[in-house]
């Protein structure tokens, strides 16, 4: 069942690769064009995901407030979060779902590369067996066991190419598949060529360089992507930033070189995609359906927070006192990026500069200012009471 499902997943990608190969006659160029089309298809999903991430960033203030306010009531916290997502029209999963799309594509492409007769040419297993028997009569020896057996169809396709005059017109759907690209054999694995590095010339050196280039570009692509999205470089993201390129380097040497061509094209197009998305979403980052009055309220809120501490409700009231509407004041408090726990700590520190408080009286005073009980407790803890 799963094998059948995998076959049908591979079919459209195999058809696309076959079309590009028939048009260009170049296996490497077909892979690059395949990658380009896939990126164009994914682009709308990427744009949607990035828009969702921008909206999520704008909601950070309110999300932190909910998390703090209902820290001891996880069920209520989840309900309030769900209500917030509904009010803002945000799907918290849509920002990351698009990033998983390349993985099934990569798996499908690997199957297409590893089994070209089955997927790229669409031949039945009976036909493949008949081709193998015909090749055996011409001196072809099928691989037995290990990694060689896993790439049996690649070796058979290369043999057919070398003896094309004996196979041409004999089997419907059989393609004269040439793995040569820029003087490199894209069917070869770099791990088998290290002993030939001094004697093999460019065909060997080129294949050995492909994983290095793919690794460097993937690392650069990750840096560009993190920078454009404004992602924080925490320990987990830093680990992934180095781990994924290292995995690419390792797999680039043990798998057919054709995959490295895909990775290189994919990284270059991903960086181009980031630039395109950045241009399209430039106004979203600055002005995501924000009115002039909301911008002004947000500017006033950020100005206040630079000089003194406020609770969420205290900031809203102050902005309303200035003449902003409740909607604009609430918007500014939601998206000013304030950490309300830290605001409570700053307010507590300010009080203690001028008068003495017991722990309970300080907490009470902070709650009077509009801080939640948890925020007020955090403030008291922060000043050592």
Can you characterise this structure?
The protein is elongated. It contains 21 helices and two strands. With 385 residues, it is an all-alpha fold. β1 and β2 (184-185) form a beta hairpin. It has a two-stranded antiparallel ribbon. α2 (27-58) packs parallel to α14, α16 packs across α18 (326-335) and α19 packs across α21. The model has no long low-confidence stretch (mean pLDDT 83). Among the domains are: 2-179, no CATH class; 292-382, no CATH class.
**Helix content percent band:** over 70%
Number of helices: 21
Distance between the termini: 64 Å
What characterizes the major β-sheet?
2 strands, antiparallel
Gyration radius, rounded: 30 Å
Give the low-confidence spans: none
The percentage of residues in β strands lies in under 5%
Mean pLDDT: 83
Task: Based on Cα principal axes, name the global outline.
Answer: elongated
Topology overview:
Blueprint: H1 2-24, H2 27-58, H3 60-69, H4 74-88, H5 94-97, H6 102-114, H7 116-120, H8 125-137, H9 146-150, H10 152-162, H11 164-167, E1 180-181, E2 184-185, H12 202-229, H13 235-254, H14 258-280, H15 282-286, H16 292-307, H17 312-321, H18 326-335, H19 340-354, H20 359-369, H21 373-382
Helix pairs in contact: 1-2, 1-6, 2-14, 3-4, 12-13, 12-14, 16-18, 17-18, 19-21, 20-21
């Amino acid at each position: 069942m799963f094998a059948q499902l995998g076959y049908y997943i591979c079919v459209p990608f195999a058809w696309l690769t076959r079309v590009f190969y028939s048009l260009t006659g170049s296996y490497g160029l077909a892979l690059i064009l395949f990658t380009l089309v896939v990126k164009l298809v994914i682009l709308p999903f990427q744009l949607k995901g990035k828009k969702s991430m921008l909206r999520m960033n704008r909601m950070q203030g309110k999300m932190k407030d909910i998390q703090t306010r209902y820290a001891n009531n996880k069920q209520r916290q989840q309900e309030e979060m769900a209500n917030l997502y509904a009010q803002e029209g945000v799907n918290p999963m849509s920002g990351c779902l698009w990033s998983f799309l390349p993985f099934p594509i990569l798996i499908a492409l690997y199957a297409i590369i590893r089994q070209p007769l089955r997927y790229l040419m669409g031949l039945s297993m009976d036909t493949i067996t008949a081709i193998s028997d015909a090749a055996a009569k011409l001196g072809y020896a099928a691989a037995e066991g290990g990694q060689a057996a896993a790439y049996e169809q690649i070796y058979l396709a290369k043999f057919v190419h070398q003896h094309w005059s004996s196979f041409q017109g004999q089997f419907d759907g059989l393609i004269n598949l040439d793995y040569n690209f820029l003087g490199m054999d894209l069917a070869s694995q770099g791990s088998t060529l290290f002993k030939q590095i001094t004697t093999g010339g460019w065909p060997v050196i080129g294949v050995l360089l492909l994983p290095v280039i793919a690794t460097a570009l993937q690392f650069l692509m990750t840096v560009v992507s993190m920078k454009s999205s404004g992602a924080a470089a925490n320990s987990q993201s830093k680990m992934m930033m180095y781990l994924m390129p290292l995995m690419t380097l390792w797999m680039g040497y043990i798998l057919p070189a054709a995959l490295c061509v895909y990775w290189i094209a994919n990284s270059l197009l991903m960086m181009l995609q980031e630039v395109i998305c950045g241009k399209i979403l430039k106004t979203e980052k600055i002005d995501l359906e924000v009115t002039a009055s909301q911008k002004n309220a947000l500017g006033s809120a950020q100005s206040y927070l630079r000089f003194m501490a406020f609770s969420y409700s205290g900031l809203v009231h102050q902005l309303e006192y200035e003449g902003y509407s409740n909607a604009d004041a609430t918007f500014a408090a939601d998206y000013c990026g304030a950490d309300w726990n830290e605001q409570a700590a700053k307010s507590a520190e300010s009080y203690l500069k001028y008068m003495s408080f017991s722990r309970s009286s300080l907490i009470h005073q902070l709650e009077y200012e509009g801080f939640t009980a948890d925020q007020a407790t955090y403030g008291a803890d922060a000043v050592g009471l």
